[in-house]
Amino acid sequence: MIVRSFKEFEGTDRHVKSASGTWESTRIVLAKEKVGFSVHETILYAGTETSMWYANHIEAVVCTKGDAELTDRETGKTYHITPGTMYLLDGHERHTLKVKEDFHCICVFNPPVTGREDHDENGVYPLLTEEV
Hints:
Blueprint lengths: L14 E3 L5 E7 L8 E7 L4 E5 L4 E15 L5 E4 L4 E4 L4 E17 L22
Protein name: L-ectoine synthase
Enzyme class: lyase
Function: Catalyzes the circularization of gamma-N-acetyl-alpha,gamma-diaminobutyric acid (ADABA) to ectoine (1,4,5,6-tetrahydro-2-methyl-4-pyrimidine carboxylic acid), which is an excellent osmoprotectant.
């Protein structure tokens, strides 16, 4: 059994800030735990817009605080995301999150991430493996 407090991750390599400056993420469960998924608490900042495409991962997101507009870039459809709303990127959809109010969410990835990932120029997380 693993029990963790978010406070223990402050100032460690499990607390990641994006190169773009639009988000920060606490990587709670990673590939090295060998449970088949990873879990993150992520905050996207108000007034930012982040385009993403998880070509190598499936992601489920649950909003716990904040307000954002999610756009499916393949269909053009938009969704208002507020606390208690979940979205699942089960088709590797290219999407953009336009944040109106700091957006706090819990994210689950499969396959699990290592914690070193950041979005590339296409908004993709590379498929990294755990270093041995």
